[in-house]
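User: Please predict the structure of the protein below. I'd like the answer in structure-token form so I can feed it into my own downstream comparison script.

Assistant: Understood. Taking the following sequence of 212 residues as input:
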Amino acid sequence: MAQDKFDLQKVHGSFELCLVGIETDDDVFLDPYLEAFKELYKFFSLMGTVFGFVSSDVKEKVEILEKLRKHADHGERFETVRKMMDYERDGNLLAKKDYVSGSRTLLRLHRGLDFIYLFLKRLGELESATANTCAVCQTAYNETLAQFHPWLIRKGAVMAMYAMPNRDQLLERVCLDASVAIKLLPEMLAVARQVYDRTQNLYTLYDLHGLP
């Protein structure tokens, strides 16, 4: 059904809202970030077992962050990525054993965004509509998420990618409108990169890249 398809325009709009009206130019609103990932989850799910290694993890992490955001006592502390990191660092929550860290949870989504950005960027750069997408997906995965996955998951992910269709078949399978998606892709990638870079800089600033 059409409503179950992946809407690239919705991802683009959500990532734009991550940056609009923010108090500083180095922060990211969390609510629209999670909305973008809800849509990206559709992309992963529609690809079936190919992206099974990441789709279930995305759903779980989004739900954890939404729960933190909606908490009556401290939900406002999770309005932006910077506020969340300040709250968890200043409250010594990052090392608390019975606490589910928002910063740690977001880090998993952040790494996933690196992968999906690189994959979609190279997908858009394919010159032929019938070009095989397997190689670009494997390369994007190996350069990003693979470094955080154990060998068994890496092996299974790379093997599953051999079954991927060509570019246009892939887009027809997952997108509401493949032709619109191809045209919008560069704009979406540009704003997604801004969101990724800001988030990356915050993890560097707060020295949180190594969260277990």
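That's the full token string. The CA atoms of residues 85 and 206 lie 7 Å apart.
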